[in-house]
Recover the amino acids of this structure.
């Protein structure tokens, strides 16, 4: 029976659940049905949030690294000193690489590649800072503005990872880090924030431990933003990648 199949079925994640729901629509009650169009939109949201966010973050990381080669060298020096070249970076290394983590925070802040949060809606008539917002109004949080607010940041348009470090450069200032808006606010902030932050850290440290990134002589990268739901940069045709040491030595 359908009940037995459902009992022993292996639903791995929300995508599997949506697929099953779509296949069972004819047998499901009308109250539980989700239109096919909505299922497609939900899956698109999952892919956009799960893949595009991290790849866009890493893409901006590389743009900043080739634009500021001294920053790249400092991150690699920190990696060599803390992790060495005998093993790959691990998630457990978070907290031991303050300059690297400060760079990631500054990349999030300066690029603000997710300029707005997902839409929210007011549940009642609201007055905020003197502005009247009626019930049911769609509201976005302008994360770009917060990340470039001169009241919060000194020289906000300057890319400077050290703004997040203490005077000795040995620790990330947690309060300053929490001021950076990337994943939204409140109960409806991005549920994948925990995973995304760790993916960016792990992928970036692995890349920089093993590779050196640059652009061809006399060339510059164009960091002019291309606006959309996510802010991206123009395609760079001048990247060069060089291996730093034999990768066979890594475990």
């Amino acid at each position: 029976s359908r009940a037995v199949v459902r009992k022993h079925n292996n639903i791995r994640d929300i995508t599997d659940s949506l697929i099953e729901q779509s296949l069972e629509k004819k047998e499901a009650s009308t109250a539980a049905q989700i239109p096919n169009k909505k299922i497609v939109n939900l899956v698109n949201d999952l892919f956009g949030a799960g893949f595009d966010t991290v790849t866009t973050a890493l893409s901006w990381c590389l743009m900043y690294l080739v634009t500021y080669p001294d920053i790249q060298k400092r991150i690699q020096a920190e990696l060599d000193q803390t992790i060495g070249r005998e093993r790959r970076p691990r998630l457990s290394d978070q907290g031991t690489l303050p300059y690297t983590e400060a760079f990631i925070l500054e990349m999030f802040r300066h690029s603000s590649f997710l300029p707005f949060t997902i839409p929210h809606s007011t549940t009642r008539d609201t007055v905020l800072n003197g502005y009247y917002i009626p019930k049911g109004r769609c509201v976005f949080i302008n994360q770009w503005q917060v990340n470039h607010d001169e009241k919060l940041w000194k020289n906000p348009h300057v890319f400077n990872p050290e703004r997040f470090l203490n005077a000795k450069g040995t620790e990330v200032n947690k309060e300053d880090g929490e001021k950076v808006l990337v994943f939204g606010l409140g109960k409806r902030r991005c549920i994948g924030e925990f995973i995304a932050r760790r993916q960016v850290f792990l992928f970036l440290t692995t890349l920089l431990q093993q590779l050196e990134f640059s652009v061809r002589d006399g060339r510059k990268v164009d960091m002019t933003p291309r606006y959309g739901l996510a802010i991206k940069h123009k395609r760079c045709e001048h990247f060069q990648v060089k291996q730093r040491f034999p990768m066979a030595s890594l475990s």
User: Anything to note?
Assistant: Residues 36-67 form the longest helix (32 residues). The mean pLDDT is 86. The two ends are 49 Å apart (CA to CA).
